Amino acid sequence: MKDKNAEESQLAGLSRRRLVKYAGVGATLAAAAPLMGGTAALADDEREFGNSGTNGRRWRAGDHHVHSEYSGAFDTTKNPPTFRKGADAVYPIVTNAIMAKYFGLTWAMCTDHGGPTHSKVNLEQAYPDLLRSRVLVPEVLQFWGMEFDAPALDHHTLMIPHHADEAQQLFELESRFAKHDAFPADPGRDTEAKMVEFLKAARGMPRKPLVIAHHAARSATGLGVWGQDTPREFRNGNNAAPDIYVGFEGAPGHQAGPLNGGARGGYGNHPTYGGFDQMTARVGGLWDSLLGEGRHWWITATSDSHVHWTRGGSDFWPGEYSKTYVAARQDYGDIMDALRNGRIFVTTGDLITALDVTASNQGRQATVGETLTVSSRDRTDVEVVIRFRPLEGENGNGDRPQVRRVDLIVGQVTGVSANLDADTNPTTKVVARFGERDWRRQGQDYVIRYTLRDVGTDSYLRVRGTGTDEMEPLADGKESPWEDLWFYSNPVFVRVR
After folding, report:
1. Which residue, 98, 287, 342, 489, is the most exposed by fewest CB within 10 angstroms?
2. pLDDT tens digits, one per residue of 18-32
3. Mean pLDDT of the region 220-233
4. Which InterPro entries match (predicted)?
């Protein structure tokens, strides 16, 4: 209650006219939404998540990478620079929240671009608007943070825990470490050493933020020819703060690019694959290399919404196309806990609305983000159950997508690599492919059962599925993103002792 009361007290100075103005924006958008190809808000999966069935956790859809009009521009001919709203992204924070609610999200995050002295803009201008939006759209938990100008890297989510001093916490981190916040510019901020310093400072805070890399291979010039973000930097950052720096976008935003003649994700140098970054989509690639070290490194999917494609942009609304589902209570802290600990699956085009992957042995069980420990003295068969729920109704394109295949992917965990640049895991394979004849209907769900025989080494398993007939996701061209839908789970680890 403390945080909610703090927000309400900060809003006490607002006139009723201004609140009605914000509410009017919402009413207009809500009325217009059916004309935008939208869909009614999707209900949370009512099944409780996990082994106990009493933790209140359910699959809840969200988006941690959304831009508002506070992704603007700076006039640096003046000192201090002056800020102009709406130069890069155009929608008010509350508009994004309304559309997130409309497309079935229960949590979202405003992640605006930085710039010279932007930390002050965030503190004095954007944050009060976030407080208003929280009051006007309480059904969507709205996190505070930014698209962090990571030293030596491409952009990253910087998600701040929800608490009374969240605005000051972001101000401290952005003003001290964001590479573009200094004015005049400071080249010393744009180094890997500064990124590691930032992560260590974040880890030392009593309320720990989260950091997730955005569009990590957008600057790559070929398959495995890395650009601004490299395997070495991910490893060094994760080593410095393993509970802070936890993953990258598996499916980047800007997925509507082909609808206006552009590339999915804005990946103009080397394409995405089925809408997913090559770091994730390539079986045995970089993501598998990191998992093969036993790293808790997770993937997400976001909109990166700036301007909707119907207005000439390359974006969908938050939740319209991509969703990051977390197994959590409808609570700020538990949603962050899910992101931190990998209770996540991602999907595009609402291909599915729930995905449970469990591994069990001798009465022990683990699910996504968890570790199953098996004894080498016992029978080391691992029973895998995949349970997914298709969309009931239509997605944001008016389609009724259908899952055509589900893949079970397994790789070995061989320990930390001496090569910080390693980007492959040759042990990772698709061990089983399942079609419609291989799953059984149970209520609203489809269930697949499979046994991994004689699991003798530490390993992990993960699941992906598609509505296409592609055995592996193909390099993306100008096809409609609605015709190329995939989902991915995060891994379940298996430890042999």
Report:
1. 342
2. 333 433 444 445 434
3. 98
4. TAT_signal
Quote the longest CA-to-CA distance of the chain: 72
Residue-wise over 363-377: b if at least 16 C-beta within 10 A, else e?
eebbbbbbbbebeee
Strand partners, 160: 144
Other Cβ atoms within 10 Å of 248 Cβ, number: 27
317 part of a folded domain: yes
Q: Quick check: 304 and 254 in contact, CB under 8 A?
A: yes
- How far is it, in rounded angstroms, from Cα 196 to Cα 100? 33
Residue in the block written with tokens 């190809």: 37
Kindly state the tokens that stand for 415.
Answer: 């320990």
Tokens standing for 173? 């981190």
> Strand (E) positions, 126-259?
141-148, 156-160, 210-213, 245-251
Q: What share of the chain is helix, strand, coil (3-state, %, to 5)?
A: 25, 25, 45
Note whether 51 and 57 are within 8 A (CB): no
Quote the tokens at residue 361: 């042995």
- Give the total residue count for the chain: 497
Which pLDDT score is estimated for 19? 37
- Residues 116-122: what's their mean pLDDT? 98
Residue 414 lies inside a defined structural domain of this protein: no
In a domain, 305, yes or no: yes
User: What is the pLDDT, as a whole number, of residue 53?
Assistant: 57
**Residue 191 CB neighbours (<10 A):** 13
Answer whether 0.85 is exceeded by the pTM: yes
Find all residues with CB under 8 Å of 457, minimum gap 6, and list them. Answer: 412, 413, 414, 496
> Whose CA is closest to 208, among 237, 244, 157?
244
Q: What is the CATH number of the domain that holds 293?
A: 3.20.20.140
Query: Does any domain span residue 441?
Result: no
User: What is the C-alpha to C-alpha distance for residues 421 and 235, in angstroms, rounded to an integer?
Assistant: 9
Q: Which tokens hold the place of 318?
A: 């938050």
3-state secondary structure of 95: helix
Rounded Cα distance between 442 and 342, Å, is: 26
Question: Residue 87: CA atoms inside 13 Å, Cβ hemisphere, count?
Answer: 12
